[in-house]
Amino acid sequence: MMLTRIFPNLLRLLPLQLAAVAVFSVFPAVAADAAPTAGAGKTMTLNPATPQPDRFAVRDGALIDLSKPKTPVFFRGMGYSPFLPGETPMQGAQPGNDNRYDGHLALIKGMNANYIQVFPRLMPPNFFSALDKTDLVYSQDVWVWAYEEDFLAPAFQEKTLNDIKEVIDHTYKVGRPDRLVLFSIGDELQAKCVAATDARHPEVRNYQGKHLSVTNRTPTEVALAKLVDGAMDYELSRYGRRHLYCHTSWTHIGPIADRPDIEVSQESVLVPDMGDLICLNVYTYANGVRTSPPGSTTGTAYQGYLEQLAAEFKQPILVTQVGLATSPIAPKPSIPGFGGHKVEDVPAIFQSVWRDIRTAKGKERFSGLVFFELQDEWWKSAKDMAGALRQDADDPEQWFGVYSVDKNHALTPKGTIPETIKGMFAQP
Predict the structure, then answer these.
(1) Does pTM surpass 0.85?
(2) Which of 153, 297, 414, 418 has its CA 20 to 30 A from that of 178?
(3) Which pLDDT tens digit goes with each residue over 76-89?
(4) Cβ(211)–Cβ(275) below 8 Å
(5) Residue 375 DSSP code
(6) Could you give all domains of the chain from N- to C-terminal order, each with its CATH number?
(7) Triad 342, 422, 306: Cα angle to 5°
């Protein structure tokens, strides 16, 4: 799913001093901890005086579980947004607090997943009760309005940070902080809004925060750095601990800039290194990916893209979304692969993606792969509540599930897709 495409009609759901530092840079020839990417001289620094997370942490460029620190983590994940027919997050609504979650998590565990990427901001208590019956861990996506014309606007920054604080508070009051891997601050910012923000603030290139600082960055990157720093500081000051942080981006706006189909200028390429790790939605058909050179092992453009990521970052990389929409109609010929996939064709493509990431040169850089998503969501792109009661054949966003769902909320596997994922996730 390209997550931000689903919200054009959605109301706004979401309402630093340094000691010696370890520097992540995008300049190719710098210190050992540097990561070359688009934009020479870009740096991101985390204050070494800032406490590290209690369980999941980054050590020597790898994501590890401190309960078993000698083994780098590789998450086998499933995206989870359990809005069922008749439900919608419009006007801030959350999924129902009912008995759906035991069954849903059983399906996720049945695919040998060990990780859930949760999208609703405030999951209900019954979800966490069901989570307690499993050994699954989860991440929390924190939606940031992706259509803002100025991500640096003080009012936007204030409102967004307050929304982030609400999610953090919910995690500690209702959620399971001991099972939480990371907070993702924002997901798939729109290219035109990135460009607009950068044009408004050409002088904003640096930010020095309490926990995170950046230099030689774009204004949009500074805006994200401020939010991540503020979120980190709030969690530490309020609860005395922190989790991993990232911003989840997508390939349309970077970080790899030498692609003819990227949707921003070289000056606005977004490098999503604001935090502990790189979180990136990497779809097989996406801009920036399909024009990549062939991979070294499988020869696919997908592996080629992954290998360039691995070569350019020292931080761990988590592929936070990959999936295919089985909508009967593919409405956008300009985006080949966005919708219109036959159910019977999906398993082979998923297997190819799995081979790509597990055999890629630099595969040790990758900390997980998350398939998007458990079940179809009928509400997406709907203009009103009635839209959540039907599944539109020409709207791919409603068809990314590996399970279909009916009006009675029953989930049915799409052919052999879940079984295919189960087999892949069982592999080393």
Answers:
(1) yes
(2) 418
(3) 999 999 999 999 99
(4) no
(5) B
(6) 3-15+53-425 (3.20.20.80)
(7) 75
